[in-house]
Write a structure and sequence with these properties.
Elements: H1 12-24, E1 30-32, H2 43-47, E2 53-56, E3 66-70, H3 72-85, E4 91-95, H4 101-116, E5 126-128, H5 133-144, E6 152-155, H6 158-170, E7 180-185, E8 198-201, H7 204-220, E9 229-232, E10 235-237, H8 248-255
Parallel strand pairs: 1-2, 2-3, 3-9, 4-5, 4-6, 6-7, 7-8
Antiparallel strand pairs: 8-10
């Protein structure tokens, strides 16, 4: 098979235009990462696709298609359990500007664990982020400028979390002594920023590989029947942004 890659960059008009192009080229199948839970702008186009459609990284209830996703809810729970174990009680959240089920699941899992411990996140500690590092900086500044700021921040993805690291540094805060930060995704740069970012690792390669396997299985007829949804495990990667013991200085001190 030949592969055509299209990046809508969360632009719904561009997303529709790309699907129109792919439909015109009569592609055999489509692996689709929707920009929004609302697919009205592409519903008819997807229904007319020549071959099967598989969604990856997120699911869309309106679309009867196979899907491969990470266990986002479990990831949110892992993040909350980690921060609570470190003694944090006042925790801020950076949310996504658009509603998507997979992002919402991360926050649902996070809130569940806190509520199980009798902790309810007040509205002032939940702010909307965006899609860029700068959006993460702005969102974190709002949290850290509160009269009673949080001692920890959980961001819906690593880009927002890295923005929070920048905001903390610009405001004279030390991470993780003054503020712990946890992201989600484990993008490559997460282990290269300073301090290194604690995050939830989702199996990105596995999601892509299984999406291709499902698509080819549908094309070959080896996979038949109702749409499948496969949910893959995630794991917590603890790094310097949340755990003082993992800072380079702390490790050197222990060595001495």
């Amino acid at each position: 098979y030949n592969v055509i890659l299209c990046n809508s960059d969360y632009n719904l008009e561009r997303e529709r235009a790309y699907i129109e192009v792919l439909q015109a080229k009569q592609v055999d199948g489509l692996i689709f990462i929707p920009s929004s839970i609302e697919i009205a702008h592409v519903r008819e186009l997807l229904a007319k696709m020549r071959g099967p459609v598989v969604t990856a990284d997120r699911y869309t209830p309106e679309l009867a298609a196979d899907s491969i996703i990470a266990d986002n809810r479990a990831g949110g729970r892992l993040a909350a359990q980690h921060l609570l174990a470190l003694g944090h009680q006042r925790i801020g959240c950076i949310e996504r500007p658009k509603y998507l089920p997979h992002v919402q699941d991360r926050l649902i899992g996070f809130r569940e664990v806190l509520e199980e411990q009798g902790i309810v996140i007040p509205d002032e500690l939940c702010v909307r982020g965006g899609f860029s590092f700068e959006d993460g900086v702005r969102a974190a500044r709002r949290l850290l400028s509160l009269p009673n700021p949080p001692t920890a921040v959980f961001a819906y993805n690593d880009i927002m979390a890295i923005g929070a690291l920048r905001a903390a540094r610009e405001m004279g805060l030390h991470v993780p002594d003054d503020l712990a930060v946890v992201g989600f995704d484990n993008i490559p740069v997460a282990s290269f920023v300073t301090p290194q970012l604690t995050t939830i690792d989702q199996p990105k390669y596995r999601i892509g590989a299984l999406a291709v396997e499902l698509l080819i299985g549908r094309l070959s007829g080896e996979i038949e029947g109702d749409p499948q949804q496969q949910v893959l495990d995630v794991r917590l990667i603890v790094r310097e942004s949340s755990d003082p013991a993992r800072r380079i200085g702390s490790r050197e001190a222990k060595t001495d």
